[in-house]
Design goal:
globular; 21% strand; 13 strands; alpha/beta; 33% helix; 5-stranded mixed sheet; 11 helices
Amino acid sequence: MSNSSIVRIGARGSRLSLIQAGQMQRAIAAALGVAPEEVETAVPIVIITTTGDRVQDRRLLEIGGKALFTKEIEEALIEGRVDCAVHSMKDVPAERQPGLVIAAIPEREDVRDAFLCLNYADIASLPQCARLGTASLRRQAQALHLRPDLEPVLVRGNVDTRLAKLADGAADAMILALSGLKRMGLAGEARSLLDPIAAPPAPGQGALAVETRTADADSVWVQALNHAPSALTVAAERGALEALEGSCRTAMGAHARLEGDRLKLVVEALTPDGAQRFRREGDCAANTDDAVALGRELGEAVKAEGGDRLVL
């Protein structure tokens, strides 16, 4: 690290990203024993605009996929301009950049998707051919599986932008991650919540990823951020992500939960139009090796059954 007394956090500039980075800023400062009045100086947040933030009028799959939310921040990390990055785990691609590692996963927020609408309580209540706003192929496919009549509308942007578009009538309803709404104090915007077993969220949804250079991964301040149960469930879900080669071209979801000394996992993938859905469920001992293996096993089974039909 360039200066052992300073930990620079790389983050996107959206309000949600800065809230998430601020949570990690305070946790890192506490681990380092930094006085409250010195937090901003000792653990500064460096705002980095990503390609995913700049390009708002196209689906991610058209411009390079999820990596567009992390690429510029990872470049800053590799070049030594920041010492860690705080990402939403669901935005982190399965492949890692050489020399970088996901070093910690803090305690996870609520994993569920939230249904937002001015006039209707849930997806089932929407009128025929209602417009559903989302930029997620998974959310689109899951909704169309239940309601093939719905008209998907591409809505990208940060949470505030999407809420404004909903209020302006750009769509009749939207689906967003509840975790982001909660972190922003906007949980009350949700009309209803989707069952994460019936409609598995994106792998890692609700979790943050703290990425560092490999050499810094064992630092005391890094280890202080990690929440073992959250890291375990995320490991299982990302095992499925890797097996399914999950990307913005694959409508896949995964949900892991701990019950006693067992980890239970459901993995699903759908055809882009939502017409066909392929699911697998299983459980294993609650340890990382078994969790990753289970994720890969279920992901591979779904991929084998769905085949090329799963890829947009």
